[in-house]
């Protein structure tokens, strides 16, 4: 239970942008940066969700895996793309994040960015080789998702 508690605590620091506490916890114990919380998310997932660019950059500087998946197969890149976190998307791609990763519903980063109108993220994903014709579990492409949301 202590490991989960520690993972939950570290993930909370990442989401809230508490970089000082996160650094303190990870000092000398880098493997904690990849521990998953009770929802199967790593600190990088939570930094992406919270838009904590400084935290994401710190975690990426530790050379951690960038494509870890949570319980519903979301990667940090899918989360950052969905939330409109332009700089974090850029940083994840620069560190080798798989632009064609899909979650449990078959949706990619582009599905989410397109449906929410995040043009800069869409352009970044396309420039980095995302499959623009990727079909999700309902048969929808990113273009379908964008059109259905008026984007």
Question: What can be said about this structure in brief?
Answer:
This protein is an all-alpha fold and 151 residues long. It is 54% helix and 0% strand.
Describe what you observe in this structure.
- This protein has 151 residues and is mainly alpha-helical.
- The chain has 2 domains: 1-65, Alpha Horseshoe (Serine Threonine Protein Phosphatase 5, Tetratricopeptide repeat), CATH 1.25.40; 69-151, Ankyrin repeat-containing domain (Serine Threonine Protein Phosphatase 5, Tetratricopeptide repeat, Alpha Horseshoe), CATH 1.25.40.20.
- 54% of the residues lie in helices and 0% in strands.
- Helix 4 (53-61) runs parallel beside helix 6 and helix 7 (109-116) runs antiparallel to helix 8 (119-127).
- The longest helix is centred in the first third of the chain and has 15 residues, at 2-16.
- The chain is elongated.
- It starts with a helix and ends with a helix.
- InterPro entries: Ank_repeat_dom-contain_49, Ankyrin_rpt, Ankyrin_rpt-contain_sf.
- It holds the Pfam family Ank_4.
Topology:
Layout: H1 2-16, H2 19-26, H3 43-50, H4 53-61, H5 76-83, H6 86-94, H7 109-116, H8 119-127, H9 142-148
Helix pairs in contact: 1-3, 3-4, 3-5, 4-6, 5-6, 5-7, 6-8, 7-8, 7-9
Q: Quick check: average pLDDT? A: 95
Strand residue content: under 5%
**Could you give a short account of the major beta sheet?**
none
Summed up, the helix count is 9
| The CATH class of the largest domain | Mainly Alpha
Q: What's the gyration radius in Å?
A: 15 Å
Distance between the termini: 45 Å
Q: What's the helix-strand series?
A: HHHHHHHHH
The CATH architecture name of the largest domain reads Alpha Horseshoe
Q: Quick one: how many beta strands? A: 0
- Reported by name, the CATH topology of the largest domain is Serine Threonine Protein Phosphatase 5, Tetratricopeptide repeat
Q: Multimeric state of these chains?
A: single chain
Relative helix content: 40-55%
Shape: elongated
